Amino acid sequence: MKKALACVVLAAGQGTRMRSTIPKVLHRLNGIPMIHYVLRAVSGLGPEKVIVVAGRDNEKVLKGALKSEDVQFALQKTPLGTAHALMSAGKALRGFQGDILVLNGDIPLVGTVTLRKFITKHRRARKSLSLLSFIAEDPTGYGRILRDRSDSPFGIREERDATEEGKAIKEVNSGIYLFKPRTLSLLKKIGLNSKKGEYYLTDILEIASLRGLSCGVYCSGDEREFMGINTVEELLRAQRILREKTVRYWLERDVSFMDETAVYIHPDVIIGEGTHIYPNVYLEGKTSIGSGCVIYPDVRITDSTIGDGVTIKDSSVIESAEIQGNTMIGPFARLRPGARIMKDARIGNFVEVKASTIGEGTKAQHLSYIGDADVGKNVNIGAGTITCNYDGVKKHRTVIEDNVFIGSDTQLVAPVRVEKGAYVGAGSTITKDVPSGALAISRSQERHIKGWAGKRKEKK
Ligand code: UD1
Ligand code: CA
């Protein structure tokens, strides 16, 4: 049987060093609240349960921000330190028999692979308590790992309490721990740190060691993965690190960038080979981009699927849409949720598409609104066409069948259908279904009044 794992994320701190009204763990890192990265890393481990420790001040906001996550909440009524925070999760952990992974909520760069390796080491060595350490180029602010002459760890000294000599130690606590359930009972033995007036979780190492429990401190590679974020400067640095890592990852997979410092790619995004990305492009959420695409400047794509060989021109916004191969989108296009653009179609400037299918080879090149519509193949949608889908109460659908020609400045008042191969004359308001092959025209007859302009002048 796979060994059970529970995770506790400490997120109740006030984050005073951020000098912000927003709870620290909800500060955004490349657009996503910091704690989501931690939860993502943790969920990769397939834990039986995840407990987030919230504080009185941030409980409501935190619950709101994490409502779509599969987590339980524990409340730390007063922020009395990290040990006290973990104790607050006691009730939620009652009866749990597996390993307990505890992490600070402010270490967003940590990855699943590193956590998994840590768990394996802890389990193999059958430790009662383990923690992950790393070597920090500048250890300021972190708890320093104390080792005896035989290199065995026996304690952690926080910055505040460290001597000058102690401060020189570069091996520091990452804020990632593993406990056997029994070891948690030692939390009660932690005394109040008089300087800060808090109960430090870090004291557990000394207490457990003194009692002869087997404790492991595993020093792990890249310090950039364990960066703790306490200030806005650190947040900005973490953002840069994360961007660099992501860009490097995609560069190694044949994606190219005109300016690698100016693209923002979320962690779940997938990009195909040979795709080129211009500056100021945002790829967000669960987005996948095909191979051989070109994405021009100022484009934002969220939760969308883009096929191969697609060109997305400048300043287009694409949300929850599907765009098939060899299409051309933009500039200035807006594809809203439910837009499905079939292959070889063209969506041009100032065209908005919502909850609509645009068939293969169909073109809507200029200034149109297509909402709640099913548009067939090889249709031409003239400039300024609007589907009037909303009657003030309900939304209705417009159906435009294959090979239809819609003249410019047409309004299609839904529900309405234009059958195969029909034509709609420019400037028409269509309220009735148009039969296949017909011409529908609804504008008034044009009149020319001869000599009118001259007479007007004479009057004046
Ligand atoms: C902590 C560690 C330090 C370690 C560093 C790694 C302690 C005492 N120190 O320091 O050894 O090197 O993390 O980044 O643990 N929190 C609560 N309730 C509280 C206080 C904090 O839930 O009462 C949460 C915070 O929201 C945060 C986490 O615990 O997510 C860590 O707290 P923080 O104040 O950032 O600790 P550090 O000073 O960074
Ligand atoms: Ca911290």
Explained architecture:
The protein has 460 residues and is α/β, with parallel strands linked by helices. It has two domains: 5-226, Spore Coat Polysaccharide Biosynthesis Protein SpsA, Chain A; 255-440, 3 Solenoid (UDP N-Acetylglucosamine Acyltransferase, domain 1), CATH 2.160.10. The chain is 17% helix and 31% strand. The strands form seven sheets. The protein has a 16-stranded parallel β-sheet that branches. Strand 8 (144-147) and strand 9 (153-157) form a beta hairpin. The radius of gyration is 30 Å and the shape is elongated. It binds uridine-diphosphate-N-acetylglucosamine (UD1) and calcium ion (CA). Residues 10-13, 25, 53, 76, 79-82, 84-85, 104-107, 142-143, 156, 158, 172-175, 200-202, 228, 230 line the site of uridine-diphosphate-N-acetylglucosamine.
Tags for this model:
460 residues, alpha/beta, Spore Coat Polysaccharide Biosynthesis Protein SpsA, Chain A, UDP N-Acetylglucosamine Acyltransferase, domain 1, 16-stranded parallel beta sheet, nine-stranded parallel beta sheet, 9 helices, 41 strands, 17% helix, 31% strand, elongated, binds uridine-diphosphate-N-acetylglucosamine, binds calcium ion
